[in-house]
Amino acid sequence: MKQLDVLFISPGNHDEIYQSLADTYSTIETPTWSLLLAQSCRSVGYKVAMLDACAERLTLEEAVQRVSEANPRLICFVVYGPNPNAGTVNMNGAVKLANAIKKAGIKTPIGMIGSYVQALPVKTLQDEKSVDIVFTNEGVYALRNLLQKDLNDTNQWEQVNGIGFRKDNEVHLTPTEAVVPQEKMDTDLPGYAWDLLPYRNKPLDLYRAPMWHAEYKEENRTPYAAIYTSLGCAFKCSFCMINIINRNDNDPVGVASNYSRMRFWSPNFIIQEFDKLVEMGVRTLKISDEMFLLNQKYYVPLCKLLKERGYGKELNMWAYSRIDTIRKPENLQLVREAGIRWLALGIENGDRQIRLQVTKGTFEDVDINAVVRMVHDADIEIIANYLFGLPGDDYESMQNTFNLSQELCTMAWNGYAAMALPGSQLYKDAVEKGYDIPKEYSEFSFHSYNTKPLPTDHLKPAQILKFRDESWVKYHSYLPFLQRVENRYGREARENIENMAKITLKRKIAGE
Fold it and tell me: In terms of domains, do 286 and 360 share one?
């Protein structure tokens, strides 16, 4: 029997990332990039397998045993996650497992793909001696080319573009490798290896949606899946690192806003992935695109296909958009008829000047209240995302942001303290300014005990975090919001929110 070429590992680190939210409330998302890379590799003849240590909640010992039994030529950690900072915070679990694999005497080379290693490839190899190879962008072609080599001969690694490795105790980065171009999306990233995912009783039942997406009811959370219809983003927000997957240089500190671009699968191709998920029993779905409602050439035909199949009545989906990209009520009606019942809107801040500053002038001057009303009129609910502690923020501007959130009274609310995420312009700025930025991976988590957000010219990190945490409780105890939830989803949903609001996160910088 042919030896396994590559074992893709999705690491686990839920307890440290989410504290007391981990067991019940945190999302467990399908590892989209592991699935994409696995399908891409086996489409050209490589034998692949997957280990989702997160979904299976494996101990280090259990995971090491599974790796040993798989006996692959290459171990490939794929370190992303359900939100922008997760690729960095999940490095903690990835490194712990990589160290345990090496300690167990397993000689297989260990590679890593993910947002953190793409942003900081040299630092990763300098800090993490258990990591043998890093991929400096999405890694599709670099991985295929690496698997053509004798993986026990490090001299052959030099012939592979798009990777970094150590040789003679020095870090070497090979010339950059291309990302999959638009014209080859359907062929070189040909879907998802859904069949490789673990399950308990039925496909995808180890994965669970956010509480709000499940209409605040536990029974609606699983089975659950996440899927891309496009990759990348056309914008250059300074707090975001999404576009680091498109990296095309070897700067020691990559900045995602330098690589802003988008690529799309064809609607006729991607609808087949929806068909597979529906056949497997999935009804709760996340469309992971950073900007789903941006290019009508792709999202309108896809929504029409979803509508034609009757998925508008079957599926409960959510997708992302910016507040200034929603313009046509008729398109929103089609989006709703396609089964998209939620939009995650990046409102970010109530102060227009602060929004302009962090989005490099691309955030148009829109009437936020009017846009929210237009979305609600289309029978689409909103999860509104806000950032506290952006450059320029003070107590007054943060309070204005929170006041706006109450005025909008959306069905779901996310608020974060601004973080210097590796790969973002905020990270590079923080390094250059000498800020006390996180040194441990878990410090990058919005929810962790030792989270370490950025300061502003007016506020210390502890002040920003305290305001954010208090705002979260205030919003989820806000009577107009609770009444709105109860009117739409029932008393049980409201009670679930009230119980969730009783959970408090401990914070190190607050002296707890």
Answer: yes
